[in-house]
Every structure is written in C-alpha cells, then in structure tokens.
Amino acid sequence: MTTRTAKRGGRKERLTQRAAKPAVDPCPPGQIGGVYKPLTEDEIGRIYDTALRLLENLGMGEVPDRLRRDLIEAGAVDNGSDRVLFPPSLVERAIDQAAKTFVLHGRDEARSIEVGGNRVHFGTGGAAVQTLDMDNGNYRPSTLEDLHNFTRLQDTLANVSWYTRCCVATDVPDNYDLDVNTVYALLKNTTKPTATSFTLAEHVEPIVEMLDIAAGGKGEFSKRPFMKVHISPVISPMRYGDDAVEVVYECIKHNIPMSCITAAQAGATAPATLAGFLAQSLAETLASLVMVHAIRPGYPMVFSNWPLVIDLRTGSFSGGSGETAVLNAASAQLSNWLGLPSGVACSMTDAKAIDAQYGMEKGLTSLAAALAGGNLIYESSGMTASLLGVSFEAFILDDEMHSHTYRALRGIEVTDDNLGYEAVFDAVLGEGHFLGGHHTYAAMERDYFYPSLADRDEPRTWAEKGGRDAWSVAQTRARQILETHHPSYLSEDQDREIRAKFNIL
Hints:
The chain is built from 18 helices and 21 strands. By secondary structure, the protein is of the alpha/beta class. It has an eight-stranded parallel β-sheet. Strand 9, helix 6 (about 175-190) and strand 10 (about 195) form a beta-alpha-beta unit. Helix 6 (about 175-190) runs parallel beside helix 7 (about 205-215). About 45% of the residues are buried.
C-alpha cells in the first residue's frame, strides 16, 4: 500500500482564504425546491377535481359586466342567477395556454429573475400599517419615510429577490398620492424587480407615465416592465371584486405583469378543513387565471394561491402556525403540479418582538414553502405582528435565515471528489485529521454558509463581547446600512421631470 501524505498550504495563505469573500456563493437565490410533498398524487387529483366541480356548478358571483362578456365569449356560461359557470374545458384551456415561465425584470437587468419551474425566490409583500421603531422598540404608524428607508435597506440584501412595498405610508391620506409616492419610493431606492398595488384603475395610466420616465421615454416601460402589480380580483368565497377587476384590465393594457392573489381564511371565508380550504382556494385562483385568459390568453400571471389561517377560538389571523406551513406548501405543490408559476405567503410571524416565537414561526413556515418549491415566497422578509407590523431588524435577520434555507435546498452534491476517498487516505496515513487539508479547504467555502449575525462563540467569549442578542446585532447592522446606503437610481433630469408631473412628498 502506498503511503499518502496530506498536502498543506501555509498558515498565512489559509488565513487569507478564510477572510476573503467566497469564490462561489454556497447558497444563492433560485435554488431547486419540490422535495417536500404534503399531498399524494391521488389527493392532488381529488382537490383539483373538487375545484373544477365548484367552478362548473357554483361558479363565480358578482361578475362585472365587462368581464362577464369576455368570460362568456371565452366559453363560460351565465346560469341566469347572477353567477357565471366555468366548464372544465375552459379552465383546462386557460391552464394549457398560461405563461409557464417569465422574467421579472429589474431596472438593472443583472437583478432580473425568472419565475416558474422549480426555482425558489424569497421576496416581500404586505401592507403593514405599523413599523417597529428602532429607537424605542415600540410600534408606531408607518410613514412614507419608513417606506423609503425599508426600500434602501432591502436594496443591499441579496436574498430579497424582488421588492414589494412592505408598509403603507399612513401619513399620505390621498389614495392617488399614496399610489404615486409608493411607486416613486421604489424607483428612487432600488433597481431590483419591484411590485406595487393600485387603489383604483384610473391610477394606472398616469403612474405608467412615471415608469416610462424612469425607463427612458414614452412606451419604454411596457417593452421591459420592471414592476409587477399585486391584485386580489377574487373575494372569498367565490366572487369577483369590481375595482380589482378594473385594475386587471388596465394593467394588461399597459403590459404590467401581475400576481393575482387569493387570500381566503380557513374557517372564515373558506372551509375550516384543510382539504376543503385547498379545494376552494384553488378554484378561486383558477378563476383569476380564467379571467386573465379571457382578456388576453397567455398573459404573465403569478398563480398566487395564499392560504391564510385564523385562530378559530378568537378569530385572530395566525400567520406563523403549522397549519399555515403545510397549507402554503400544499398550495405550492398544487401550482407546480399544474405547471403554473407559483406564489405563496410564508414567514408571517405573529410575534411582535424579535424573539423565540419570531424565529420559530418564520423558520418553520418559510422552510416548508421553499422545500415544496414555491417559486415566489411573499411576506418572507421583515414582516411581524401577523402582517400588521414590519421591522428593520427583521429584514436583516430574515436575509440570513434565507441563506440557510437556500443551503438546505441546494442539498448534497455526490461526485468522485466529494466522496473524499483519497482525502480519507491522506488523513488516516498523514496527520490523523482533516483540518488543514486541501480537500477540506476546497469544501470550506464551496459547501458551507457562514452566518455573520448568528453567534457561534462559546459562552465566555460571547459574554466578553457584550452578550448581545440577535435583535441588537441586527439593529446595529440595519443602522449601518441606513447611514451609508443612499442610492438615487433616478437621474437629476428624471427626478425633475417626475416632480414636475406628480405630487412627490
């Protein structure tokens, strides 16, 4: 037997390698999901068949006249009792012709992401009306300044793949000014793919003018839209919402991609049984898809089936429960089974403080959704207090949590080199351990993620460094970013033109 000796580099070289940024990111966004399957194939089929029967025999109520005409022309049936019924053939035609993948553009093309397939991306959502104040640790009404600051903060976070406004500027009372200033905050402070919402359909066209200015001229935004819209055109149970449907028409007119969000609540606006909930929620999200199909077949739509849970004892929304975790994972599984770009909502902790409840609920729900293969996981960054609150510290902590999740999704690469056959020889016949070996150093940065916030010191060292908890460490990081990161992604000319046309506050 040939004796093997370990090959060792110099200590200075090893220390330099440790300090350097990894040559390969061990856990980038867009990892593959779909391993966790809470539903069997038979169960998926039964839920889908129930959804089809609901649409065929109960259909949708309160259908706006304009949409009613388009649906009937596409193959829907008016039952004569103010409900429109969807034959299974119409639903399946809408599924077949739907966009299966599409690009969410960033204004910086390098930050664009592809939606669909089995790639997982974490992002934001929410409409929090309260912000956890970093100075006093109490909640207060969210402001326009908060929205600008949250947008600046997330611009630096690698694991926020797209940014939807996370809070409502409660100090902007006029709805049009609110929509305008929300979009302006996104344009000024980030070049990632973004998302917003429109209170009314008539707000869409003027705001597209603002987007055109940022894109470089009239009509330029529609050629490569870098902002999508969140719309809830279906109101549970099983009816359309007039204002939201009109927004859908306007967004399609201006080529704005959309997330059509179903947000039923188990036991309140949908059945309390999890299987019954999934059947109704799937039917309602399919109703959004058929609506889009009737207006423009194949138009880009994120199939955003968001199962929400309430505490049936109190009626309070419960965003961090085990039921939320399994329902959203099942929703992602159903959407992927249909081959549609999936959107789910997880990491919606009910905790008010950055504490053990916060960490447990966020970790449980976001990991389940990712393992199930949710393409876009909304609400996953920054949200607290059952979506009523948002926190700067939470954004920082959640970003690191997502890195761990991506690492778990990446799994284990089994190759001849990774199996380490020769490395075992080198260690056993050489130093007697694997520390310092080239095989170890090659794996050190490639295969492992090293947190910058989580503490791994032994207790005495942690105490000597101040014994700080995660909340205070994240707060320091957030303050540093907000003090130093002041982007202005609008040129002076663009900003001047926007301010001349809109009431920028």
